[in-house]
Design goal:
Shape: elongated
Order of helices and strands: HHHHEEHHHH
Radius of gyration: 18 Å
Oligomer: single chain
CATH superfamily of the largest domain: RNA polymerase sigma factor, region 2, helix turn helix motif
Number of domains: 2
Helix content: 55-70%
Strand order of the largest sheet: 1-2
Strand content: under 5%
Number of strands: 2
CATH topology of the largest domain: Rna Polymerase Sigma Factor, Chain: A
Distance between the termini: 46 Å
Number of helices: 8
Length: about 180
């Protein structure tokens, strides 16, 4: 039933129906906001990226072929839009993510524990610590760890060398461990 409802709204978006666009936006906004927060820590920038991402979703919805999950298709658009924002800001010399807040992107009701040596950290601890990484370290870490991209793919996507991707991942891991251990 829910799958049929989703398909009906996708078809509605293809016809330009605002009711269907609103339904998809409301259904996926919070989840996609969390995805974009992995890459950018400034909530205003994340809201802009999510809005831009949904515009891309609705503009390119004809490209969704019902092969694979719709959520995965939307997620890929949001990740690419986040990376584009990082590239734009890098090109203009702006620094992303000076704020160190995470503001409840993860439901507090769902807490998982991650063991690192003798310490135990929740997912929220790790996500909060990730917000303290530099934008490029955070992007490389996310693309490698969460999106399972190779260093070659990351290098191509971010416009850096493979060596830079590897170096940024190693530094991101080291800094993340340091941040977590200091808390």
């Amino acid at each position: 039933m829910q799958n049929d409802e989703l398909h009906a709204h996708i078809d509605g978006c293809r016809r330009g129906e605002s009711k269907s666009q609103r339904w998809i936006f409301e259904r996926y906004y919070r989840l996609m906001f969390g995805v974009c927060m992995r890459y950018l820590s400034d909530r205003d920038a994340v809201q802009d990226v999510v809005q831009e991402g949904f515009l891309k979703v609705f503009t390119n919805i004809e490209g969704y072929t019902f092969k694979g999950s719709f959520e995965g298709w939307v997620r890929r658009i949001m990740v690419n839009t986040s990376i584009d924002a990082i590239r734009r800001r890098k090109a203009t010399g702006l620094v992303l993510g000076e704020e160190k807040s995470f503001d409840d992107v993860v439901d507090e009701a769902v807490e998982y524990e991650i063991d690192t040596d003798d310490e135990t950290f929740t997912v929220k601890d790790v996500q909060s610590a990730m917000q303290e990484l530099s934008p490029m370290y955070r992007a490389v870490f996310n693309l490698y760890v969460f999106d399972n991209m190779t260093h070659q793919e990351i290098a191509t996507k971010l416009g850096v060398s493979v060596g830079t991707s590897k170096s940024n991942l190693a530094k991101a891991r080291r800094n993340l461990r340091k941040i977590l251990m200091s808390k």
